[in-house]
Design a protein that fits this description.
With 256 residues, the protein is of the alpha+beta class. The chain has 2 domains: 63 residues, no CATH class; 140 residues, Ribbon (Umud Fragment, subunit A). 24% of the residues lie in helices and 21% in strands. It is built from 6 helices and 9 strands, in the order αααααββαβββββββ. α1 packs across α2. The longest helix is centred in the first third of the chain and has 16 residues. The chain is elongated, with a radius of gyration of 22 Å. It starts with a helix and ends in a 6-residue tail after the last strand.
Length: 256
């Protein structure tokens, strides 16, 4: 399919599921300029860009090349099919609950918080997360939830989900638990849990600025919550060290 088809599909998706381009920007965190570029007539909306956007929106990779329904259209169709053919018989009361498993359509102004992309690209290094038991791909939340549960962050577009990995932070979270990370916080300004990499290896640790023993500078001490893992120091000037984001909140699971 060509650019014109993909652009038409994107504009249809925005209109059908979000209402206005501004609502699409709010819900997805994609910049207004980027949306205008992809949907407008002047710039290309190529195959690779379409696939990347489809993944970000949890759509099939080829969605923009096909004629598939939007998520909201699919949910409406599922609802219609679940009602069965119209008739004049009196239905039992429980029939009213037959659509309880139908997916809820996106509402204008809702937010989709996606998983952190470990694959790199756009000048960012690939990140390996060892012992990660699967991933949480995205959260679909309304703005009220964000305001009440995450009152401070650098911008909705900078929020990402990281699925907990490894045993070193047990006590703060368990492997497989969701962590909400602010990818706009890339400097250790105070003691807090951070998501960072050394080389390609990803870590989540409590990071603490510690004065150097024999100089005016400081080192960054990485501290695990699990006492079985000793702390280690990082030279903040190490070119292989990069702070990817600050952990804002996490949820610790319990099995019953």
């Amino acid at each position: 399919m060509n650019d014109a088809h993909r652009k038409a599909r994107l504009n249809h998706l925005i209109a059908a599921d979000y209402g206005r381009p501004a609502d699409f920007v709010l819900a997805t965190g994609i910049s207004k300029a980027r949306v205008s570029q992809m949907a407008g007539p002047d710039e290309p909306f190529g195959e690779a860009a379409a696939r990347n956007l489809a993944r970000k929106l949890d759509l099939d990779d080829d969605w923009f090349n096909l004629q598939s329904p939007t998520p909201k259209e699919a949910a409406a169709q599922l609802f219609k099919e679940s009602q069965g053919p119209a008739d004049h018989h009196v239905h039992e009361p429980q029939a009213a609950y037959s659509t309880s498993n139908a997916p809820a359509p996106h509402k204008a102004g809702d937010l989709i918080i996606h998983q952190f992309d470990t694959g790199g690209g756009m000048g960012r290094a690939r990140v390996l997360l060892s012992e990660q038991p699967g991933v949480i791909k995205s959260w679909h939340v309304d703005r009220a939830w964000l305001q009440h549960n995450v009152p401070s962050h650098s911008g909705v577009q900078n929020l990402a989900i990281v699925t907990g990995f490894g045993p070193s932070m047990i006590g703060m979270y368990n492997p497989g638990d969701p962590l909400l990370v602010d990818m706009g916080c890339n400097v250790v300004t105070h003691d807090a849990p951070y998501f960072f990499r050394i080389g390609e290896e990803g870590y989540i640790k409590l990071l603490q600025r510690v004065p150097e023993f024999d100089g005016p500078g400081h080192v960054i001490r990485a501290i695990s919550k699990n006492p079985d893992y000793p702390p280690f120091d990082i030279n903040p000037k190490n070119p292989h060290f990069e702070v990817l984001g600050k952990v804002l909140t996490c949820w610790r699971s319990e099995h019953y």
